[in-house]
Design brief:
It contains 17 helices and no strands. The longest helix is centred in the first third of the chain and has 23 residues. It is globular, with a radius of gyration of 22 Å.
């Protein structure tokens, strides 16, 4: 019998990259169904367009880089990027919006840095930020929450809104079907010195906590996020830090002047908060790595989201907050490295000479 010797490490994770990505996609399902119920068929159309675009871009770039196409496509990373980006795009955004955004995310945010594992920024959020800055009208136009799969809009009208032939058609369709999100309305009206009590009486705010439909969408993503923690796909440090940073600042301002600042619950269950906390900020490539660093990373994202939502120019700020902290992740890692075995202090790459 031959003695087989293998090098360390001798243990390995049971989950492959493809397995992790598949479970992450499964965890988005409650949120997708909630978006489908409250905002109609557009979300399914956007996901389909985004996935097709991402796979084609991934295959094309792998071909140019002379990499095995089938091998890399089977890790599902392109599909995850596509789905996360599509979930952040308004369901009635024209088809070219999701195609441009997904292409930009795959080419510029992922493969120009070397592909999966080498990108310093979250690709989906790079694509979203690029679209929001370049096409603000299309990226801030949502259907009003209706329930029953957006029945009053219907499949035919949804397809017409997405595949309309010209920008003029887009504008007229938006006027007929679009509505402000609760975060949009809150920021606009508070800038006009309206009180939160008056705002709560408007139709867009008539929901469980944070506006019609949006609260349940966030509850659905929260359920999916808890599934990821239970399956050990992500750790709890980033989501808890994220929600703590956002909640603490929101609570402080709300207690100080409740008529002008919304409660923590509104910020937690409004906009893309839970999607950002559990699915976006937890990207293992672009986030901090140590447990302490992850909590600080998530906490700072939460603080930035509240600051930008309340005092900045954008009603929802998940993408910008995540991208800014992606820049800071290496510094956070440097100062939060755990103590090396046998050393009293964390090893930060500086070795002492033997005396």
């Amino acid at each position: 019998m031959a003695f087989i010797s293998v090098t360390s490490p001798h243990s390995h994770r049971a989950n492959s990259t493809a397995g992790v990505m598949q479970q992450l996609l499964l965890a988005t399902l409650p949120g997708v169904l909630a978006l489908f119920w409250f905002f109609g068929w557009g979300i399914l159309v956007q996901i389909t367009l985004s996935v097709i675009t991402a796979v084609l871009c991934e295959a094309g770039i792998l071909y140019l880089r002379k990499k095995p196409i089938a091998f890399y496509l089977k890790d599902y990373s392109a599909v995850v990027t596509a789905v996360l980006l599509a979930l952040a795009i308004p369901p009635i955004a024209p088809w070219w919006i999701v195609v441009i955004g997904t292409s930009f995310a795959m080419v510029f945010a992922k493969h120009l840095y070397g592909g999966l594992g080498s990108n310093p920024f979250n690709p989906a959020m790079v694509g979203y930020a690029f679209l929001l800055i370049s096409f603000p009208l299309q990226m801030t136009t949502w259907l009003p929450s209706e329930g029953n799969f957006g029945a009053s809009t219907g499949v035919e009208n949804t397809l017409q809104l997405i595949f309309s032939s010209s920008p003029a058609d887009d504008a007229s369709n938006y006027d007929a079907f679009s509505g402000a999100t609760p975060l949009d309305e809150l920021k606009t009206q508070l800038d006009l010195d309206q009180s939160t009590d008056i705002l709560q009486q408007q139709d867009v705010f008539k929901g469980f906590i944070a506006g019609a439909g949006w609260d349940w969408v966030n509850v659905a993503f929260l359920i999916g996020g808890c599934f990821l923690i239970w399956r050990k796909i992500i750790s709890w440090h980033i989501p808890v830090g994220f929600l703590a940073g956002l909640g603490i600042l929101a609570a402080a301002f709300s207690l100080y002047q409740p008529a002008q600042y919304a409660s923590p619950l509104f910020h937690w269950f409004g906009g893309g908060c839970m999607l950002g906390a559990f699915f976006i900020a937890t990207d293992p490539v672009s986030a901090a790595t140590s447990d302490k660093g992850r909590f600080i990373y998530g906490f700072l994202i939460g603080l930035l989201i509240y600051i930008i939502r309340t005092f900045g120019g954008y009603p929802d700020a998940v993408a910008f907050a995540v991208l800014l902290l992606n820049l800071a992740a290496p510094t956070i890692d440097y100062y939060t490295q755990p103590r090396s075995y046998g050393h009293d202090k964390p090893n930060r790459g500086t070795a002492k000479k033997d005396s």
